[in-house]
Amino acid sequence: MNNWNKQIADMLADGTVALVIGYEEGSTPQKTRPLFCHDAVAAERLVMDGRCTHNLAVYLTKKELLPAEGRIGVVATVNVLKSALQLMQENQIPEGRFLLMAVGPEGKLTELPDAESLRQYIAAHPLPDNPEVAALIEKIDAMSREERWAYWQECLSKCVKCYACRAACPLCYCTRCIVEDNRPQWILPWASTLPNIEWQINRVMHMAGRCTGCGACYAACPLHLPIHLLTKKLTQEINREFGTERPAKGNVLSTFSPDDKENFIH
Amino acid sequence: MKNYQIKHSDLDGWLEKIIAAGRRVIAPVTEEGHTDFRPIHSPAEVAADDQVQTIQSAKQAAFPKAETLFSYRKEGTAVSLDQPAPESYLQTVVWRARPCDAAGFTPLSAIFNWDYKDNLYNARLARTTLVAFSCQQADAYCFCTSVGGGPGEKKGCDILVTKLPSGKALVEVCTEKGEALAALAPGLFSEANAVADDSPLFAEKQSALAQLPARFSKEDIRRHLAEAFDSPVWREQSERCLGCGACAFVCPTCACFDIQEDPHGSHGRRIRCWDSCAFALFTQHTSGHNPRPSQATRWRQRILHKFSYMPERLDATGCTGCGRCSRACPVDMNLLEHLTSIAQK
Question: Which of B249, B274, B282, B286 would you mutate first to test chain A, the one with the most A CBs within 10 A?
Answer without folding.
Answer: B249
